[in-house]
Amino acid sequence: MSSPEATVKNDFRERAKNNDVPVARLVGFEVKEIADGRAIVNLSAGPQHANPMGTLHGGILCDIADAAMGIAFASTLAADESFTTVELKINFFRPVRQAQLKAEGVVLQRGRTVGYVECTITDEQNRLIAKASSTCMLLRGEQASGR
Fold this sequence. Notes:
six-stranded antiparallel beta sheet; Thiol Ester Dehydrase, Chain A; 6 strands; globular; alpha+beta; 3 helices; disordered N terminus; 25% helix
């Protein structure tokens, strides 16, 4: 018999792996890997993601970075914990029109109250497209209820 913590983690991982996440369907990204404190999200970026200048909209890069970092951080949670992102920062290094993008989120610090996560976004030629970081606040008890 599995523990409630294992069931919550498995449910979360199954929803993410099956792309049963509304924003994933909307933007078109796929979760490719989830490990403890790590996640990879892929996106086939194309014209449907373009800004008025014809390049990939920066918000799309923020979406896949936020997803990779959030999934990485969520993979470290206990059954009675949740979290919220309190800060997100991103730097854009290379414009994209069409590419196979990989966003890799890694938890660098996970404390009792705050965590720090980074994400590297690369293209199919392993060129650095963007780098992001986020600060997450852990929620427990009533604060985590219903999240």
